[in-house]
């Protein structure tokens, strides 16, 4: 399965991707996670990307296309992938299409995850992530079971609040989504790839709607 999860910050792309990887047996490819790993590792990419991410802006397209080319070239992505947070601009979408065409592996679907803007703020200010296993929780809507705080998968519970989840930066990220990423909705609709999913309500219910939207999309 080769799919893109498209949606505003906080729409649940990461949460749902983590659930779909078991069903489709393909990796989640989150460009946000790849960039945060580079920041933590202190690589040159991480040093360049950090200020941009903290400001809620987008890292440049050439850098992102280089990252995605390298990641999709790894063996675990040969049978498909769930793209989470990429593409985010028209040039990224064009670059992805060219890359996938060159290997004869076109996208099968792009799922737009729809959530009201007011709810996005609450989801993002309440988000907590386990630094050890990467699981995502929410102090309001999806609290981690206690103890241990990560839900039992980690010996060392270590929840953190992302620096770009402050209210000021969330506002900037939503602006950037509207101006630079929203145009991808028409881009993929015109190419017959877009499926819309109501991404509000219980997480299990959203997963069921996603699976229904993806059924029969295989090429
Ligand atoms: P990235 O990490 O991709 O952030 P994002 O797109 O802003 O998305 P989020 O991770 O914030 O949200 P999500 O949709 O995954 O929601 P989640 O499942 O966590 O990017 C970060 C930065 O990196 C960017 O700002 C940019 O600088 C850079 N970057 C990354 N990719 C780039 C690219 N391609 N080009 C350029 N720059 C790039 O859920 C959110 C919360 O809601 C959680 O707490 C969760 O528990 C909760 N929740 C989930 N579902 C539900 C539900 N149904 N009901 C209630 N609560 C829910």
Question: What does this molecule look like?
Answer:
The protein has nine helices and eight strands. It is an alpha/beta fold and 219 residues long. The protein has a domain at 2-115 and 182-215: 3-Layer(aba) Sandwich (Rossmann fold). Strands 2-3-1-4-8 form a five-stranded parallel beta sheet, sandwiched between helices. A three-stranded antiparallel beta sheet has the order 6-5-7. Strand 5 and strand 6 (136-138) form a beta hairpin. Helix 4 (61-72) packs parallel to helix 5. The N and C termini lie close together (9 Å). The structure holds BIS(adenosine)-5'-pentaphosphate (AP5). Residues 7, 9-15, 31-32, 35, 52-53, 56-59, 64, 85-86, 88, 92, 123-124, 126-127, 136-138, 141-142, 164, 173, 201, 203, 206 line the site of BIS(adenosine)-5'-pentaphosphate.
3D shape = globular
Q: Tell me about the biggest sheet?
A: 5 strands, parallel
Count of extended strands:
8
**Average predicted local confidence, pLDDT:** 92
- Which CATH top level class of one domain fits? Alpha Beta
Second CATH tier, the architecture of one domain: 3-Layer(aba) Sandwich
Secondary-structure map with pairings?
Blueprint: E1 2-7, H1 13-24, E2 28-30, H2 31-41, H3 44-54, H4 61-72, E3 81-84, H5 90-102, E4 109-114, H6 117-125, E5 127-130, E6 136-138, E7 159-160, H7 167-181, H8 183-190, E8 194-198, H9 203-214
Parallel strand pairs: 1-3, 1-4, 2-3, 4-8
Antiparallel strand pairs: 5-6, 5-7
Helix pairs in contact: 1-9, 2-3, 4-5, 6-7
Bound molecules: BIS(adenosine)-5'-pentaphosphate.
Brief characterization of the structure:
The protein is an alpha/beta fold and 219 residues long. The chain is built from 9 helices and 8 strands.
């Amino acid at each position: 399965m080769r799919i893109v999860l498209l949606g505003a910050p906080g729409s649940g792309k990461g949460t749902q991707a983590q659930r779909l990887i078991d069903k489709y047996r393909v990796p989640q490819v989150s460009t946000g996670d790849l960039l945060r790993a580079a920041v933590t590792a202190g690589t040159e990419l991480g040093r360049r990307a950090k200020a941009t991410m903290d400001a809620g802006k987008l890292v440049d397209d050439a850098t992102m296309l280089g990252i995605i080319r390298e990641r999709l070239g790894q063996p675990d992505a040969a049978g498909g992938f769930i793209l989470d947070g990429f593409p985010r601009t028209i040039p990224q979408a064009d670059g992805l299409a060219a890359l996938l065409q060159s290997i004869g592996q076109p996208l099968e679907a792009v799922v737009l995850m729809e959530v009201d803007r007011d709810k996005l703020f609450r989801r993002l200010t309440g988000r907590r992530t386990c630094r050890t296993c990467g699981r995502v929780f929410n102090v309001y809507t999806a609290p981690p079971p206690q103890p241990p705080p990560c839900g039992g998968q980690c010996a060392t519970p270590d929840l953190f609040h992302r620096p770009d989840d402050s209210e000021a930066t969330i506002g900037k990220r939503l602006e950037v989504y509207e101006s630079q990423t929203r145009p991808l909705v028409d881009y993929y609709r015109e190419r017959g790839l877009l499926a819309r999913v109501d991404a509000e309500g219980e997480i299990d219910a959203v997963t069921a709607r996603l699976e229904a939207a993806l059924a029969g999309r295989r090429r």
